[in-house]
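User: For my dataset I need records formatted as: sequence, then structure tokens, nothing else. Please produce one.
Assistant:
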Amino acid sequence: MQYSHIALCNAASEDAAAKILMRRIDERCPITWNARRDMGLSIELARDPGIGNEGFAITDTAGSAIRIAGADTINLLAGIGHFLRDASYDLEGFRPGLWRGISRPQKELRGIYFATHFHNYYHDAPEPAVERYIEDLALWGFNVLTVWYDMHHYHGIADPKARAMIQRLHGTLAAARRVGMRTCMGVLANEAYADSPVELRADPNTSRGHYRRELCPSKPGASELILRWFDEEFRAFADIQPDYLWIWPYDQGGCACEQCRPWGANGFLKIARRIAALFKQYSPQGRIILSTWLFDYVPGGEWEGLARQIDQDRLWIDYILADAHELKFPPYLLAHGVPGGLPLVNFPEISMYGMTPWGGFGANPQPAALQRLWDAAGRMIVGGFPYSEGIFEDFNKAIMARFYWDGQSAEATARDYIGYEFGPESANDVLKAIRILEVNQPRVWKEGDYARPVTQLENMQDHGAAEALALMSAVDARLPLHIRSGWRWRIMLLRALIDDELFRNRGVPTPTLEPWFKELVRIYHAQHADYVVHPPTAFERQRVLTPDQS
């Protein structure tokens, strides 16, 4: 049955969950909200710990209302999200879906990492837009938000730019708290400020990424300086009381000196243990997530060494984090299991894979690749934190959210996403186009290479860019204006438009691309972005080639 009037019962209008529900329905169809049960649909919202530690329930009540209940606010929002995606909307009103029952998540940590650097979306978008996006992710079931205060940009914590970033990160974490998410801070074990003492700096010879500011904790005075800087940072965020702390070894970071190597099983663990103890002084209930990122790319037997060290001393570590750039889960873990039998979380690459600049050509849907990764490692993990550089991988976030919640297949989630965002009648055509976009995705337009063709066509074949554009254009022609003009649809359609133009012109940029790239800049708020997250407009290509003239 379709409704033009909805009564929202048992929920104050100022309640965060109620406001989110009302706003999302209002955006999709005309609704009159009232408190009278006899004028249309009645929806009850409730926080019900009886559901269990986590989960939600959608049921019909004796009073002919639909009741959405969650164990707490974040699970209530997960239930609201499920309810919204199961419903249908048109100019006549709202039609609730038929799903009823109880749903509980399979994975305890359903996190997301917002990279706040390079002047990407999370760095520069208006704060209300970021807050709105956090709400969207809560509706998909994410329950932890991670941020990183990247020291290397700044000259100490008193640097005005550092203070501005701390304030922005506070706002981001506070927004997560308001929707019931837990919060997490990330640190590199030996990270340092831009003006770190040269004589204390690390030997970067064997690390994959390095800012060449990081410190060697084996040098006299360096560990004390590292800990002093982290003490300042943890004190600055003490009011947030982060629930978790990530401690990372590499990319950037690490030290290859004789006293520190192999870093991941030696110098890293020594300083990480001290960082963890310091964090607990400010967040006594906080839990420690030890990252093994890039252990597979640095020689030296780090996995084996880590396993030996954890067997001797594991009490200070609560989780191990592992994953890889190439969407291939670390072979050591698949063969040997997790060191110390600790709970394992992943860090899936949903942003950078196969495309530079990241998101610079529009959306980067990866359902098949993410399904392969999940099939390999999903059984081993207790959750994860997809790596996000912006909103261009919104589609991928939805897939990961459902993997963590109930293991739903990527294709099934793709249909849910398309049906909710673009209309169920669009699902077949858009999904077929997305399959083409995914296989056509690899392209690298690196800094200093802008004079060369955008795509590395010698390593690629066009698997149907023209067909993908035809499918997307047909859908675009029948979408209502509010969907057709929304950013989620635009970044999908722009990707199809850009791919078709590039493949028809052997990867050589043409004037036709320029307005599409500029639209992506506006959507991403990337006007000041670094090249890695800046769509490759003509101005950006010229700026990189001749930086002294731009």
